[in-house]
């Protein structure tokens, strides 16, 4: 096998390269591979050149049997492969990627709405412009994957390497079959640290942002999905990894439904071009959250008794309609479970570490429950066609602007049932609540003007 | 603030009237994780040191004690922790992911249990070796890391033959007992010995190592493991 296949665009540890020593030596001597120390000592700290961390807590010391000294190793890299101070990283320095020519790579036969098409055109233009950045600000349920198809098509036609990075493994799992179907002749990899599709030679790589740790100047088109989601939005190292994985003239597309302050500032300063997709693919506006002030909310929660506003909602709701109840903490989940026994409701709870998370979500989808009580983990991604949404204690700090917009975006997803109720139970409006509602109304206004 | 080496949650440093004047003992894990480490306790098998309902000899050891080749090759094993699913994860982080620093989690427990069982024993300490290949890959020998905690000079009297497989799980128990001894003697100790290893599971490894030593006039041979 040609070593070029799996080494191009990579930065790897020796055990990650499945080649004999003499081949590696040959590649180094012929200038196709270069090596750098895996960890370097800087003035006041160490730096791991693999994950880019300089955080003191990420370095521990090992009495090393390889080099017979005691030296640092990187704990931040443990999940993807420990990095020793006495190790080297191998960087590809040989010829650029060359992909099979394709004139018609996209086999998707659906069509885009007028608004999706606008975004798709902008992406396509950005793909052709070296170094361009573009933010697609698309509401929850806008159908953003399909909007990417024309841009990806253009990139494949031009023989470019493409990365679709996302903070969440669920998204990688969900996107892989859809892209595989749309681009059947393209070599696609799906990397998320689980049972994945890893060949080391994909032209289109769908990966969690952590997986970019093995890429170096690899991609001409970098698409970052859910730019604002944890852990990407607050992890500097992941930003550095994404930057390192791009080639110098790469195009960068950011996708988000709820940009953070940093992006909003860049948009306002005209430093980041933006395209809005203010309407869902089914053409209906976003449900605007309704507020319900409950002046005894905290008191009742403290007493572990159901707040009046919640009981009132449960009693007045349409019986056959399912709803999601978002609570601020895991502790509150257990409390809610006690509080709601006695109500004529079939319900269960779910949180991020819940081993039965998947099964419970599926059971809710199969209508085995009227109600699913959840922490903010279900704020993204999970889609139920026909539900209402209630946030309990919406003034709690975990419900920031982005979280509220995302949660509200769970309602009215289906074209058959495009409306849905979003109810915020609170004991005092926060800026986050106000800003979220302003954002949703603003998008709806933009949508109606188009 | 420090993060727990196991679960990464922040560690609360509690300062009370009783300890604020003392030099603070560095904490490496949070209280939740600390509570999940299960010591073996007092009721154990007199031979292999596993946790028992009541003290005695366990059925595994009864077999070893009647084995034509291995009976009497070693005196007893003593261990620190039970092999719980949680411990299995902790060990995976240490050995297979290579997080050397995890030894700090075990250190105080190793010191305490070692003193309890072997404090008065006069013997040389020999860690169970890895093959050269495995040692290079891992960059440390976990048995040696445990032995170093005891702060007693270490005698590397054994080596592991290159091809011998350390993964025994695929063979049946009978095959394992009959399998070839993977160790070679590199040094004559002529003294009582305490073998050190991370885990005592079937006892095969310890019996093989002990056999090499007893055949070379070492007596008695004990063993001390982190886990049973
Ligand atoms: Zn690192
Ligand atoms: Zn070293
Ligand atoms: Zn026993």
Automatic annotation (TrEMBL), chain A:
Xref: SUPFAM superfamilies: P-loop containing nucleoside triphosphate hydrolases (SSF52540)
Molecular-function annotations in GO: 3'-5' DNA helicase activity; ATP binding; DNA binding; hydrolase activity
This protein's UniProt keywords: ATP-binding, DNA-binding, Nucleotide-binding
Sequence ranges assigned to domain Helicase C-terminal in this UniProt record: 309-450
Entry annotated with the keyword Transmembrane: no
Entry-linked PANTHER family: COMF OPERON PROTEIN 1, PRIMOSOMAL PROTEIN N
This protein's name: Competence protein ComFA
TrEMBL record, chain B:
Record organism: Gracilibacillus ureilyticus
Classification via SUPFAM superfamilies: PRTase-like
Top-level taxon of the source organism: Bacteria
Family indicated by similarity: Belongs to the ComF/GntX family.
CDD domains tied to this protein: PRTases_typeI
Name of the featured protein: Competence protein ComFC
Entry-linked Pfam families: DZR_2
Chain ranges of the Double zinc ribbon domain: 3-62
């Amino acid at each position: 096998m040609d070593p070029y296949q799996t080494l191009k665009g990579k930065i790897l540890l020796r055990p990650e390269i499945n080649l004999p020593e003499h081949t590696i030596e040959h590649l180094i001597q012929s200038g196709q591979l270069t090596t750098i120390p895996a960890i370097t000592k800087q003035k006041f700290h160490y730096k791991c050149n693999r994950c880019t961390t300089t955080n003191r807590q990420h370095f521990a010391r090992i009495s090393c049997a390889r080099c017979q000294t005691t030296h640092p190793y990187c704990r931040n890299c443990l999940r993807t492969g420990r990095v020793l101070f006495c190790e080297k990283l191998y960087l590809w320095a040989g010829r650029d990627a060359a992909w099979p020519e394709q004139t018609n790579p996209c086999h998707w036969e659906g069509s885009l709405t007028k608004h999706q098409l606008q975004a798709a055109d902008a992406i396509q233009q950005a793909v052709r412009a070296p170094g361009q950045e573009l933010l697609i600000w698309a509401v929850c349920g806008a159908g953003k994957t399909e909007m990417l198809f024309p841009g990806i098509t253009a990139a494949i036609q031009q023989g470019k390497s493409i990365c679709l990075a996302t903070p969440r493994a669920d998204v990688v799992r969900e996107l892989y079959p859809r892209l595989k179907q749309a681009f059947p002749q393209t070599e696609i990899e799906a990397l998320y640290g689980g049972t994945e599709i890893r060949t080391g030679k994909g032209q289109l790589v769908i990966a969690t942002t952590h997986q970019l740790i093995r890429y170096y100047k690899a991609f001409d088109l970098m698409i970052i999905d859910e730019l604002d989601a944890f852990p990407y939005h607050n992890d500097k190292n992941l930003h550095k990894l994404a930057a390192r994985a791009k080639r110098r003239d790469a195009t960068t597309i950011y996708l988000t439904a709820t940009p953070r302050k940093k992006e909003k500032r860049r948009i306002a300063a005209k430093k980041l071009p933006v395209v809005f997709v203010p309407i869902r693919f089914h053409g209906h506006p976003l449900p605007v959250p309704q507020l319900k002030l409950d002046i005894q909310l905290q008191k009742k929660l403290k007493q572990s008794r159901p707040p009046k506003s919640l009981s009132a909602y449960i009693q007045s709701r349409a019986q056959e309609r399912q709803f999601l109840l978002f609570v601020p903490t895991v502790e509150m989940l257990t409390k809610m479970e006690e509080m709601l026994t006695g109500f004529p409701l079939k319900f269960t709870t779910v949180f991020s570490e819940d081993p039965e998370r998947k099964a419970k979500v599926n059971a809710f989808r199969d209508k085995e429950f009227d109600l699913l009580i959840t922490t903010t983990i279900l704020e993204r991604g999970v889609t139920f066609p026909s539900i209402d949404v209630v946030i309990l204690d919406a003034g709690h700090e975990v419900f920031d602007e982005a979280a509220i917009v995302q949660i509200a975006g769970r309602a009215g997803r289906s074209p058959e049932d495009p409306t849905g109720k979003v109810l915020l139970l609170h004991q005092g409006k926060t800026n986050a609540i106000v800003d979220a509602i302003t954002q949703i109304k603003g998008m709806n206004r933009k949508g109606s003007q188009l | 603030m420090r993060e727990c080496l196991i679960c990464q949650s922040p560690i609360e440093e509690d300062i009370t009237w009783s300890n604020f004047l003392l030099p603070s003992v560095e904490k490496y894990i949070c209280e939740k994780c600390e509570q999940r480490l299960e010591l073996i306790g007092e009721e154990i098998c007199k031979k292999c040191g596993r946790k028992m309902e009541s003290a005695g000899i366990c059925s595994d050891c009864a077999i070893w004690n009647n084995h034509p080749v291995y009976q009497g090759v070693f005196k007893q094993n003593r261990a620190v922790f039970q092999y719980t699913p949680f411990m299995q994860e902790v060990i995976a982080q240490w050995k297979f992911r290579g997080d050397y620093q995890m030894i700090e989690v075990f250190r105080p427990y190793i010191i305490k249990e070692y003193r309890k069982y072997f404090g008065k024993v006069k013997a040389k300490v020999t860690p169970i070796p890895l093959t050269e290949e495995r040692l290079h890959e891992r960059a440390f020998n976990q048995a040696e890391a445990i032995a170093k905690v005891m702060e007693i000079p270490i005698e590397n009297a054994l080596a592991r033959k290159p091809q011998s497989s350390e993964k025994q799980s695929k063979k049946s128990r009978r095959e394992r007992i009959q399998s070839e001894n993977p160790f070679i003697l590199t040094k004559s100790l002529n003294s009582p010995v305490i073998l050190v290893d991370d885990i005592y599971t079937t006892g095969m490894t310890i019996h093989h190592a002990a056999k090499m030593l007893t055949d070379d006039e070492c007596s008695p041979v004990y063993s001390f493991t982190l886990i049973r």
